[in-house]
Amino acid sequence: MIRLTDVHKSFGSNQVLRGVNLHVPMGQSMVVIGGSGTGKSVLIKSVLGLVTLNRGIIEVDGQDVTRADRDAFLARFGMLFQGAALFDSLPVWQNVAFRLLRGTLKRPWSEAREIAIDKLRRVGLDADVADRLPAELSGGMQKRVGLARAIAAQPEIIFFDEPTTGLDPIMAGVINDLIREIVTEMGATAVTITHDMTSVRAIADQVAMLHAGKVRWCGPISDLDATDDPYVQQFIHGRAEGPIAAVR
Amino acid sequence: MMRFLASLGATVLAMLAAVGRLVMFTAQTLSHLARPPFYPREFGHALLQIGYFSLPVVGLTAFFTGGALALQIYAGSARFSAEAVVPQIVAIGMVRELGPVLVGLMIAARVTSSIAAEIATMKVTEQIDALVTLSTHPMKYLTLPRVLAATLMMPVLVGVGDVIGIFGGYIVGTERLGFNAATYLQNTADFLELRDVVSSLVKGAVFGFIAALMGCYYGMQSQRGAMGVGRATKGSVVAAAVLILAANFLLTEAFFSA
Predict the structure, then answer these.
(1) CB distance A103–B130 less than 8 Å?
(2) A135 near A195, Cβ under 8 Å?
């Protein structure tokens, strides 16, 4: 279980998170929605220790993440970044097997390559992609490689930061299906950040909406359409008029 | 008046903060020297990039500088009929000063800029964050191999630059200025001392450390966007060049004063 209690984070005078409380049960797929700049990415980066909190506690299975052994803690996580964040200088298979080629999970070179190719196949890519450089791939293929990297070390918890941003609707559908299948197959806990409502409906068990640095609404996906929260209704229907001020 | 003092104070504080950040960054880099895991593949790659691939630019720079130095010294010494000192002054000038400084500045232009741009781009595209999530410390994986490789390779590059610079002077001296080849070489060898060579190599190591460290520091400190990458690259080269020249003065003072 991931639990965030009274999480605050600001960058200079910009207060991004203003007391976030959120609970993600293990084995569930939580999708965090919200407008641009509401701190969704900051939220998951806080859990991973990529940004330092000003105040608040983040616990994973009851353990405060700031006191956890970093290597053991991070070994439980996988993350797909918004722009895939593949390492330009490494071929695709070494990107996927990055964690398996060094550190505590180190495997022999040939075994790591086999696992990488297996994961690439799992996300629908041929083995001949393995030796290409990331720059030689399309955006959709890069996202798939990022997904393969996120699952290569069999993590218990996977974060997806805007997994369908920049993809055409068909490729976005493919990525949504892959995320759903893989998370179910691995029994992993998933936290996804997105504005894409098609993604939300394809991936989510639970939905949390972030607004003005706080969780505005949280509940099962089945309750999303029925809620009378005007902020949620404006967001999910993409209306310009409503309580959320659109920046023009 | 108060506004001026406040502005001056803010500038001084900002400078002190920047120095503090750089000192902390240096200490963090060095602290990873003794702590595993190590990344020999990245270190080997950095040795190749910084050392081997810099040889052509170092060689050309040193050769032309040695040749120009021989011409200048010949022209200058001719005013008081001391043309015979050309081999000695070329040797001492290249080994003590021009070799290490020019190689240092060329490495600042070629390597520092490349490191800063690469790391800044990695930061902008979240590759540094990705490294952390993959249980890999960016300082250990990116900074340490580059700084270590530059510190070890620069004395080699400076040594090569010194030899090629002297060779440039030799070619000009014998082919253009009419020096006897054997005498030129004999005068060069007789005049150089071990201290000259040691100072040259030590300067090389220090300049290499500065060049790579500035590239990594500015890359890691880079702000978002293409402008951030540009600023990091420009700042790293300027800082490396200035620090190399300042360190050169201090090292010259340490080796040759009194």
Answers:
(1) no
(2) no
Number of domains composing chain B: 1
**Residue A170: which residues within 8 A CB-CB, separation 6 or more?**
none
Is residue A159 assigned to a domain? Answer: yes
- What are B175-226's pLDDT values in tens digits? 999 999 999 999 999 999 999 999 999 999 999 999 999 999 999 999 878 8
- Does residue B4 form part of some domain? no
Give a yes or no: residue A228 inside a domain.
no
What residue has token string 């809620």?
A227
B136 contacts in chain A (CB < 8 Å)? 98, 102-103
Contact A81 B132 (CB under 8 A): no
pTM metric for this prediction: 0.88
User: Helix (H, G, I), strand (E, B), or coil: what is residue A241?
Assistant: coil
- Residues from chain B that touch A149, judged by Cβ atoms under 8 A, are 134
Residue B141 Cα, gap to closest chain A Cα (Å): 11
Report chain A residues whose CB lies below 8 A from the CB of B135.
70-71, 74-75, 99, 103-105
CATH number at residue A187: 3.40.50.300
Are residues A128 and A165 located together in one domain of the fold? yes
Query: Could you list the residue range(s) of the whole structural domain that residue A149 is in?
Result: 75-169+179-219
CA torsion B216→B218→B219→B224, rounded to 10°?
160
Chain B residue with the nearest C-alpha to that of A87: B127
Same domain as A108, residue A56: no
How far apart CA B168 and CA B92 sit, in angstroms, is 14
Number of structural domains (chain A) is 2
B17 part of a folded domain: no
Query: Is A157 a domain residue?
Result: yes
Instruction: Answer left, alpha or beta for residue B225, where phi above 0 means left and psi between -120 and 50 means alpha.
Output: left
